[in-house]
Every structure is written in C-alpha cells, then in structure tokens.
Amino acid sequence: MLIKFVFENFLSFKKSTIIDFEGASIREIPENTVTISNVFPETKILKSLALYGSNASGKSNIIKAFNFTRNFVLTSVSDGKSFQNIPVEPYKLDPTTETKPSLFEVTILVEGIKYRYGFALTQKEVISEWLYSIEKRKEENLFERIGQGFEIDKKFKTEAEGNALMLSKITRENALFITTLGQFKSNTAKKILEWFDKSIVIFDSNNQEILNYTAGLLNQPYYKRRILEIISKADLSFSSIEAEVKDAANRSGYSEGFVAALYDKDIKNYRIYTNHEKHSERKLAGHVRFDLEINESLGSQKFVVLLGPLLKTIKEASIIWIDELDARLHTNLLLFVLRFFNSRLNNPHGSQLVYSSHNSVVLRKDLRRDQMIFVKRDPFNGSIITTLHNWDSKIRSDASFDKDYLEGKYGAVPRIDLSPDLFD
Fold first, then answer.
1. Long-range pairs for 285-290 at CB < 8 Å and ≥24 separation?
2. Which domains are present in the chain?
3. pTM here?
C-alpha cells in the first residue's frame, strides 16, 4: 500500500511535490478510505486519487515520475546499463536545476511494516539513497548512502545472507543499492522490489501492451470469470468472450485457453475476439466473431483491455496509475471504474488507483475533497499541485465541485479567450 510519494526536480516539477494517500480529518464518503486496524488504526488511507488540470499542466508528469521510480528500482542493475546514463529528466526551465539531483521517495506499507525508501540522482550517478523502517511510530535507519559511501544498520548487515556490506562495495555509481540487494536474497529488499513490480502504470499510448496483458489473464479462470461478469453488465453491444471461446474450442479441438487469446507469433501480439448475436426478423440467427481492435469502438477496446490490470490490482491489493483514464470512455464507464475501486465490497483490502482526467462529473459526489488533486502552472510555467481540501478547508462537502471547477474557482483550468474578435 502506498502512503506517500514524493518527487522533486523532475520534468515540469521544480519543487518538492507530495502525493499523499493519508486521508484528512473529514467525514464525507468514508468508504473511499481503508483503515489498517492491526497496524495503524488511527490512519485512514485513500483508495483513489484524481488528477485534474488543464492540458500541459503536468498531470501526466506526476504519473511519469512514479513510472521512472518504479522502472529504475527494478532495472538499475540490469545487464548492459553499466556505462549508460540514467534516463532522468530534471526541470529545465531554470538553469540552476538542470545539473541538480532529482529526488524520489515512497512511503509504503508491506506486510505490516512501513518503509520509507528514496534516492536522489543525476543522469550520471546516484547521489544518495536511504531506507527506513517504521514500526510502532519508531523510525529506524536501515541504510543510508552518500555517493559510494554506505552506513548500514547492524541488524541490516545480516540481509542477503550476511553479504549486505560486501554488496554495498560492488554497487555501481549509476545503480541502486536496493536493486543490488534484491538480486542477492535480501528479504527486505525483495519485499520492496515486489511491491514495485506489482504496481502498474498505464499511459494512453500503450494500448497493445495492455491488450496483451488482459488477453493473457483470460487464460486464468478467476480473471476470465470476473472480466466476463463485468462485460455482461457494461452494455457494450456484444455478449461474452467466453461463449465464443468455448464454441471455437469445441470446433477446433484446441484447448479453451489457446483460443481465449489467439497469439500471432510473427508480431507477437494477442488478439481478443468478441461475440455478437445475429438476428433475422427479430429472431436469433446465429453468432459472429469480431476482432476487438478492428471491429469494436475505441471506447469498447479501452474498457475491455483495462479490465485485466484493474482486476489484477484489486486481487493483489496493489496500486495502478492510469493516465487519461476518461479518454474515449463514456462517463458511466468512468464512474464504474472509480466506484469499483472505492467500494468496500469489491475493494476491501485497499487496492489503490491514481488517474488523470478532464471529466468533472465524478467531482459531484464520488470523491472526497482530499481525493481531488488540482495541477496548475506557476508564473514561471512550472507545475504545482494542491488538493481541494488543502487549498481551502472551508469549502463545504456539499459544494458543487464540478460546476465550481469548470468555472475556474479552483484554478487548474485553461484560460481561453473566446471573444468574438478572436480572429480579427
């Protein structure tokens, strides 16, 4: 579970930026939070956060910041990266920040223990790295790194079968110590890396990758059943994929799993097929198979392929970040996804969703004030954020958030001059 994500000097964000999942002391919509009663009973954790702002405000860059953190933690020790620059992009609208380190930090809850892990780096090297554990409000330093100098807690030296100190000496300047530890059986590092690995980041441009992900899950009975249950209720004009899969499997003699997601070995992409009913004079006259990518609408494609990672996140109690979630989706489908995550019934363990959107309808009554993050540009075109609750705690919980947002009362909307003499 993600408690807090902090980053600084990255893309359009110059200053330290905090994405905070700790709920504020407000009473509205309690089901949108989860309490970890056996660990931190007094803390309410938000199940979802929504990023709103005008185009080019920096919403996507928040998601890119977490995606960079995730990818670098998981791959910094990969073969072939020994002499590569670190692919971090500092804030470039101020000459003083271009050569300064960028900072990234997560506070996460894993198996009842809270960890605070982070690092600062340039494109050339890791400047610093740290890991703390927090149990019963007491924070203990497990290791701290300044350049190639390491201070390792006595207890933590037993990690990686007692080789933690030795591993610090072979960690490259452009690699993370936590990644190195994870490759050598450090239980703590392994838990942290697994948390990052389970985290999912989706951008609107990687549709084929997500289609492959969902198609692969169709081979697993649990995910197939849940996906088809949702499709049957979503009014997408086609019936179930499973019905077509079973029928095709029976005709072909191949296994149902093979037919569920046909695999093209040349381009190495899955294909998902939908099953539609044929009617003649209002009577059922058979069925026809459609290729999801070719024959279905872009909105139907997006909704179907998102079901895999969304359900995976729910089942594994992890986190998913989705850029432009509302793009090509009807408002009711967007509301379905949001309510699915915030539901106590469907999400009892606190799986988390962060998404960017321009659809203001969900602001009416589906989000708490501390779940609404507004992304704006400062006078120098840098990105800054605030939650509605932090921006003005006096705003009433029954205010017309969607109307007020579009009218620009909270900022984070484009300022467009639509006067009649625009082209004069």
1. 287/239, 287/243, 287/244, 287/247, 289/244, 289/248, 290/238
2. 2-199+319-406 (3.40.50), 204-303 (no CATH)
3. 0.87
